[in-house]
Amino acid sequence: MPIHDLDCLTVARRRKALCTVHAVRASGRETWEALVGAPAAAFAKSCGFGGKAGQLVLVPGPDGRMQALFGLPEKGVRDPFAFGKLALDLPEGDWSVQAPDDVARDDVILGFCLGAYRYSLKTDDKPTGAPRLVVTAGERKGLAAQMAQSICFARDLINTPANLLGPSDLAREAKNALRPLGAEVDVVKGSALDEAYPLLAHVGNGSDRSPRVVVARWSGSSAGKDAPLVSLVGKGVCFDSGGYDIKPSSGMLRMKKDMGGAASVLALAHLIMAQDLPIRLELRLGCVENSVSGHAMRPLDVVRSRAGLTVEIGNTDAEGRLVLSDLLYEAGESHPDLLVDVATLTGAARVALGPDLPALFCNNDSTAMLFAEAAEHEADPLWRLPLWQGYAGWLKSSVADLNNIASRPMAGAITAGLFLEHFVKPDQRWAHVDSYAWNDSSRPGRPEGGDVPGIRALFRVIRSLCGTNDTKKT
Q: What EC class does the entry list (predicted)?
């Protein structure tokens, strides 16, 4: 599938044809007349417009052109998604958005683009007239636009039905997205995969759609041999039936999204490359399907991992950690400066934090602080949960080094993180993100369907490694 070309943005040359949105706050009512004129301000108030965040009202302009007032959150509250409402509710035309100086221009562009996103396979669903945001030529190729392209690409991948996106398809999409940006991309399959990634193979070989591992390497144009090395790992389970420990039908309804971790790190890698950050980058995607078949893994199977540890399969529906383990261990062989994995790993994380807060696990407090600061700066929340070693004994097995499921039905997100930690070197800076990768309902900038929360925060952390973050909110 192609990277989105963002038709919702336009570099307008005829300023006379533009309509204007004035973004205002309830606390600044005295300025509205100066922006739109006294008659228009009075008309807006008569329509019930009070500047409340998310409110939008169309008002007549002095020259006959349409204009609008749009309510912002109060000063100090950042919400890029709010501008997604403009892409949904403005009428067709080219619109310029004028906002207070404290509102980042990138937030306007990103929110508008994410609000304009839609996914449909309907044969008669032809796009109708939609508003377009007027930007400069530089903004059209800038960070916000590239970030929107990467996020929309990931959304497309997650939203694609599982019959149209199997392991080989996901691997192909990764290759097609990254090679044009200069990455070396290898796709491992067959006996080579069985030998190199035995735990992953034990999951994926249960499906007639055989597994794939994507390994991509890239260096920025100004990255020297000593440039920071960042390694990304993503869980790409294209459909998860649960295996022999099969999910109930209700639990399978959204399992096309179980490759959301792979989509997340693929979007992040695409953005890093598009921005040409001065780093070295490695990316690994475990692309599999967890199926029920005569050759699927069984409860109480024991498999020797790439790391040499033996793992007992206590539950075939705890497959994501098996997919990640061999990849994490291989990633550590390159001694990266930062190792990050993203996965739709546990329902326990959702019970604890809900759909909008990805759970963050770090084995290093200073690294965790970097993520926390980036999440706050970008208004892209991550919530740290502990790698509580007191629960490590719950993963014991009587016949193997580890069980892939805990012996107690509690703290499932934590024990999953503890399982993964066995495959990460003790001195390795590592972050594990347990994400939902889905919006259950539509909100401005966040339509129902696949999504990749946390990516903006992760990107800021990676930029900080090479000292390219500025002081502005971007």
A: hydrolase
